[in-house]
């Protein structure tokens, strides 16, 4: 099966239909990812089929989370090579997307991808989530914050919840067996003004893997002392 077939079949299994143009944009993105990966470290997954499944289909599986829809304002925290943010932007063409990462080389890659694919309304932020989360231009300005493979949920909540408006959502894409990690994060989520409202199991197409999406609603303002200074949320997570 080629990359386009994996995308088409896999997205159907996820309950979504990609247009021909969206499919072509994602295949082009995959080519850029593998090309740039020879010069800068973007991904450890390099086999084409695995890239399509573990990066692209896994990112698209976020559409199972109901808070995601067109026209919302989304921040992808620790986006790395653009996952899940860019596949979501290809699918939901009208979202306003902010891609945040602390590695500038990755930001340059993301700018090149968005320019090549013709994606509009994308903002690029280079820096730490803890710093932008304290900046009034970004704090509590988003309908949705998403993150995949960045940190344990208790630290990740401190990175992400400050960006979300009251009534908005933080969507954490997680691997299998998330229950213990969710328990360890309960206190932190509450302190930061959130509440877990749903956990969705997602069987990843063409694999035996089941991933989880944890959906957290922001129900009250985040106290101004959070996020703490850069590094603290991972060194000393709220418990
Ligand atoms: C393992 S990668 C995952 C990237 C992408 N989300 C994915 O699923 O492929 C983690 C990324 O988070 C970024 N990161 C880690 N801590 C961060 C922080 N505090 N603020 C901003 N970016 C951070 C790293 O630079 C890295 O690109």
Automatic annotation (TrEMBL):
Main location: cytoplasm
Residues binding S-adenosyl-L-methionine: 78, 83, 129-130, 148
Top-level taxon: Bacteria
UniProt-listed InterPro entries: rRNA_ssu_MeTfrase_G, SAM-dependent_MTases_sf
SUPFAM superfamilies: S-adenosyl-L-methionine-dependent methyltransferases (SSF53335)
EC class: transferase
Family under the similarity heading: Belongs to the methyltransferase superfamily. RNA methyltransferase RsmG family.
Protein name listed in UniProt: Ribosomal RNA small subunit methyltransferase G
């Amino acid at each position: 099966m080629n990359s386009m077939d994996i995308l088409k079949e896999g997205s159907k299994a996820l309950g979504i239909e990609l247009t021909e143009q969206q499919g072509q944009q994602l295949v082009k993105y995959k080519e850029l990812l593998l090309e740039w990966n020879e010069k800068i470290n973007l991904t450890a997954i390099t086999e084409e089929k695995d890239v399509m499944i573990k990066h692209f289909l896994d990112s698209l599986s976020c559409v199972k989370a109901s808070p995601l829809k067109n026209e919302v304002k989304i921040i992808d925290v620790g986006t790395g090579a653009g996952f899940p943010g860019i596949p979501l932007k290809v699918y939901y063409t009208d979202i306003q997307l902010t891609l945040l990462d602390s590695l500038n080389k990755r930001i340059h890659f993301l700018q090149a991808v968005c320019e090549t694919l013709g994606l509009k309304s994308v903002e690029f932020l280079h820096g730490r989530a803890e710093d932008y989360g304290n900046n009034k231009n970004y704090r509590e300005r988003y309908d949705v914050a998403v993150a995949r493979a960045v940190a344990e949920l208790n630290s990740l909540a401190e990175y992400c919840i400050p960006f979300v408006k009251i009534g908005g959502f933080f969507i954490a894409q997680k691997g299998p067996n998330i229950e213990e990690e969710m328990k360890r994060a309960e206190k932190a989520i509450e302190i930061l003004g959130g509440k877990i409202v749903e956990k969705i199991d997602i069987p990843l197409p063409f694999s035996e893997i089941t991933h989880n999406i944890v959906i957290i609603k922001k129900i009250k303002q985040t106290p101004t002392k959070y996020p703490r200074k850069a590094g603290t949320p991972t060194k000393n997570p709220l418990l």
